[in-house]
């Protein structure tokens, strides 16, 4: 193999101003402002239906905003030419193509060398000739990650990519994503229901509440982060407490006691 490593320091800075998205009479995102630094790892949490995926889809240019704009490294997103990749809960592999061919999907030329390198990076070097049906759920997500990495993305958008995995596989995948991000330094936006996952991985945790940024919390904990550490638990509990005090459809001016103690949960439902 001639080329075995992919580029690093790829991150792009995003500036989101007055972003709005309405579906008929329903306003999902309201005048949302958000700055994300180049190479930053940002987690987005919030109640189901608060607009997390809508925000990600707008940044991925899979949807059109009703108002506002997004700039990438100072240029309007649509004209910025940045490479953005998405990962979902479902790996979305083509079952009739090998693992290697799934990684190199749509590429021409000498893509095999880079596909092998991407597979090695996600720990699947020996699985290139297998079929997706021969892989576990965690391995399929690794292939999806390799399929993103081969493009050397500047922006990686992760929409609950680990949501269907068992707890141990989930932690292994979190560690893998962190390692790969630390190496390449692309910008990451991770949508997750798991506040613990957000605190474990992100530089900042953003809480979307009724279409706005309800909380923007920096996570100044050294990496790799020990989930049992006091600072970790306090941060996680603080974010969960905030989520639980803001039931869907209620204004934040009316605080309510959470029905369940925040310490007993780590999921923002
Ligand atoms: N294409 C669409 N047409 C109409 N309504 C939509 C469309 N896409 C999203 N919505 C609505 O926008 C709201 C926010 O959806 P979104 O998927 O962004 O929420 P979410 O925070 O990602 O939720 P979850 O955590 O459950 O995935 C929901 O009420 C949803 O029904």
Automatic annotation (TrEMBL):
<dbReference type="GO" id="GO:0005524">
    <property type="term" value="F:ATP binding"/>
</dbReference>
<feature type="domain" description="ABC transporter">
    <location>
        <begin position="14"/>
        <end position="235"/>
    </location>
</feature>
<dbReference type="InterPro" id="IPR017871">
    <property type="entry name" value="ABC_transporter-like_CS"/>
</dbReference>
<keyword id="KW-0067">ATP-binding</keyword>
<keyword id="KW-1278">Translocase</keyword>
<dbReference type="InterPro" id="IPR003439">
    <property type="entry name" value="ABC_transporter-like_ATP-bd"/>
</dbReference>
<keyword id="KW-1003">Cell membrane</keyword>
<keyword id="KW-0813">Transport</keyword>
<protein>
    <submittedName>
        <fullName>ATP-binding cassette domain-containing protein</fullName>
    </submittedName>
</protein>
<dbReference type="Pfam" id="PF00005">
    <property type="entry name" value="ABC_tran"/>
</dbReference>
<keyword id="KW-0472">Membrane</keyword>
<keyword id="KW-0547">Nucleotide-binding</keyword>
<dbReference type="InterPro" id="IPR027417">
    <property type="entry name" value="P-loop_NTPase"/>
</dbReference>
<dbReference type="InterPro" id="IPR003593">
    <property type="entry name" value="AAA+_ATPase"/>
</dbReference>
<comment type="similarity">
    <text>Belongs to the ABC transporter superfamily.</text>
</comment>
<dbReference type="InterPro" id="IPR050166">
    <property type="entry name" value="ABC_transporter_ATP-bind"/>
</dbReference>
């Amino acid at each position: 193999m001639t080329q075995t490593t992919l580029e690093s320091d790829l991150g792009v800075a995003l500036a989101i101003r007055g972003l709005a998205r309405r579906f008929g009479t329903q306003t999902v995102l309201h005048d949302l402002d958000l700055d994300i630094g180049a190479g930053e790892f940002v987690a987005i949490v919030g109640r189901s239906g608060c607009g997390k995926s809508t925000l990600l889809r707008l940044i991925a240019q899979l949807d059109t905003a009703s108002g506002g704009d997004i700039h990438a490294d100072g240029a309007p997103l649509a004209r910025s030419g940045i490479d953005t990749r998405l990962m979902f809960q479902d790996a979305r592999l083509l079952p009739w193509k090998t693992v290697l061919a799934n990684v190199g999907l749509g590429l021409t030329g000498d893509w095999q060398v880079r596909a092998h390198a991407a597979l090695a990076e996600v720990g699947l070097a020996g699985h290139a000739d297998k079929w997706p049906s021969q892989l576990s759920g965690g391995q399929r997500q690794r292939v999806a990650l390799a399929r993103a990495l081969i493009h050397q993305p500047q922006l990686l958008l992760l929409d609950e990519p680990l949501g269907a995995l068992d707890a141990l596989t989930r932690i292994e995948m979190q560690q893998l994503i962190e390692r790969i991000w630390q190496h390449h330094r692309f910008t990451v936006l991770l949508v997750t229901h798991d506040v613990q996952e957000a605190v474990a991985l992100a530089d900042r945790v953003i809480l979307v509440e009724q279409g706005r940024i309800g909380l923007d919390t920096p996570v100044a904990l050294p990496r790799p982060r020990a989930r049992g550490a006091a600072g970790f638990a306090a941060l996680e509990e603080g974010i969960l407490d905030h989520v639980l005090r803001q039931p869907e459809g209620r204004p934040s001016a009316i605080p309510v006691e959470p029905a369940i103690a925040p310490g007993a949960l780590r999921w923002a439902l």
